[in-house]
Amino acid sequence: MAEQRSGVQVTGEGTVFKLLKDDNQGSRHQRFLIELPEGQTLLVAHNIDLAPRINKLNTGDTVAFHGVYEWNAHGGVIHWTHHDPAGRHEGGWLKHSGKTYE
Length: 102
Prior knowledge:
Blueprint: E1 8-19, E2 29-35, E3 41-47, E4 62-70, E5 77-79, E6 93-96, E7 99-101
Parallel strand pairs: 3-5
Antiparallel strand pairs: 1-2, 1-4, 2-3, 4-5, 4-6, 6-7
């Protein structure tokens, strides 16, 4: 992520510091901002048409992730945090409070 590369499969963990409204244009995405231990911030865009929503997500919660990182000037975006129904792409996931969302 520090190399400003995009399209990279990554795994990590961060603390939720802001919950955003869902993106309902096209595939629906649950969106929230996390801060990594080193201080970098990321937007998590979790496709809730393909994976369950994280209910009871709050600021201050820890979320682990495995997905695709896309660099931007604000820190970046993590997406593909779900399975691939077509089986052509490595599946991703989110983990929150002991439950895996994929």
